[in-house]
Each structure stands twice: as structure tokens, then as C-alpha cells.
Specification:
Helices cover about 30% and strands about 35% of the residues. The protein is α/β, with parallel strands linked by helices and about 230 residues long. The chain has two domains: about 120 residues, Rossmann fold; about 100 residues, LytTr DNA-binding domain (OB fold (Dihydrolipoamide Acetyltransferase, E2P), Beta Barrel), CATH 2.40.50. The strands form four sheets. A five-stranded parallel β-sheet has the order 2-1-3-4-5. Strands 10-9-8-12-11 form a five-stranded antiparallel β-sheet. The two termini are about 25 Å apart.
């Protein structure tokens, strides 16, 4: 089973240590970094392939809620705070769970189980559908409707027959959500193999696309098409 890559954002060093210890006891979690303020964490969000953020609410300079306001397409979030009054507002941001300090290990495990369930049964449902966050809203897509995916800097463009969605994600992270029906043909393109009608030279052609194939991906594409 794949690990969930996570970070901790909390200005209290004791709280950070408690969360680090809890994470260390869970084999499904991999701690990537800890931050004592939301500003530094916000700078890292776009640079790291993350699945989960443990986020404190009351922090100087930028609160956890302000952090959520600023980043509407961040990974799953588990809020952690000593003030239960923030629970209702936190769930307005579609957080996965809400932990009250001091963090109890059993309650921590329940929150993590929820995050894992969401990751495996919603985000990475590889049979027919995936959920993506497009403009801050969860959208359900049938993978069979996706023509191709295009890299756009810090975003990816998910192209459908009748439109597209812009998702805040790296190509690597988004590719991991897709079923085996998709193949990378270029550093900037992932294609639904069922939509390919022709492959010649350095171009892959579908009814609604004409995309380049890089030298590094040509061999793998030939092998998939000949299966």
C-alpha cells in the first residue's frame, strides 16, 4: 500500500513533536517536513508532491484558516487546534477531519483512516471515476471521458470531449491518480490510450488531438499499442 506524504504546520514546538511521533507510528504516513508558520508552508505547497497536511489554526502572521483561503487546491487537510470553536468554519473548507489538542493517538488514527479511505476510494478510484478539485470545487470525472492531460506550469489541464478543467497539481501527482489506460507520451502530455487512433513518427493522433511524442516515451508507447 502506498504511503501518504504529509507535512505538519504548527507554531507550537510541543504540538509539532506530538504530531511527528503520531505520524512515525503509522506505517501509511511519510513525514516530508514540518513548519512553524503558514507562510513558509505556503511556499512549499507548490514544490512538494503532498497528500496530506496537518494544519494548526491559531498561528501568527497567517492563520490556518487564512492558509486555506489562499490555497483552495491543496491536498487533504486535517486541522489541529486547542479551540473547538473553529471546527464549523474549518469544515467549510472541506477539511478531512478536525483534531482537538492535546492530540489523542486513537483519535489521530481515526482521522488518518478517513484520509486514507478518501485517498483510496475517491481520489484514486482507478476503475471508472476520479475526483479532482477544479477552481476549488470537487468534480467527479469518468476517466473514459478524458482525452488527454497537459502540463501548465503549476497546473494541469484535463481535456475532455466537451471542455476541460484546470487543476492545481504536478503532472507526476496527477498521473498517479489515473488508471493504467493512460500513458505519458511527452513531459507535457498524458494520453488516454483508448483515444489514440494513429501513431506515426513523433506524433500521436486522436479524433480531437494531435500531440507530440518524445524520444524517451516512444518505445513504451509502441509496446503498449502493440499489446
Amino acid at each position: 500500500m502506498a504511503e501518504m506524504r504529509c507535512i505538519v504546520v504548527d507554531d507550537d514546538p510541543i504540538s509539532r513533536d506530538v504530531l511527528k511521533n503520531c505520524i512515525a507510528k503509522n506505517k501509511r504516513l511519510r513525514l516530508i517536513a514540518t513548519y512553524d508558520n503558514a507562510i513558509e508552508a505556503s511556499a512549499a505547497i507548490d514544490q512538494k508532491d503532498l497528500d496530506l497536511v496537518f494544519l494548526d489554526v491559531e498561528m501568527p502572521e497567517m492563520t490556518g484558516l487564512q492558509f486555506l483561503e489562499r490555497f483552495k487546491n491543496i491536498p487533504q487537510v486535517i486541522m489541529v487546534t486547542s479551540e473547538k470553536k473553529y471546527a464549523f468554519e474549518a469544515f467549510r473548507f472541506d477539511v478531512t477531519d478536525y483534531l482537538a489538542k492535546p492530540v489523542d493517538m486513537d483519535r489521530f488514527q481515526i482521522a488518518v483512516d478517513r484520509a486514507i479511505y478518501y485517498e483510496e476510494n475517491v481520489v484514486k478510484n482507478q476503475e471508472e471515476e476520479i475526483f479532482i478539485k477544479s477552481e476549488g470545487v470537487l468534480v467527479k470525472l469518468r476517466t473514459s471521458d478524458v482525452e488527454y492531460v497537459e502540463a501548465m506550469g503549476d497546473y494541469v489541464k484535463v481535456v475532455l470531449l466537451n471542455g476541460h478543467h484546470i487543476v492545481h497539481s504536478t503532472m507526476k501527482a496527477f498521473e498517479a491518480k489515473l488508471p493504467e489506460d493512460f500513458i505519458r507520451v511527452h513531459k507535457s502530455y498524458i494520453v488516454n490510450i483508448h483515444k489514440i487512433e494513429e501513431f506515426k513518427e513523433n506524433i500521436v493522433i486522436g479524433e480531437y488531438f494531435n500531440l507530440p511524442v518524445s524520444r524517451t516515451h516512444k518505445k513504451a508507447l509502441k509496446e503498449r499499442l502493440s499489446d
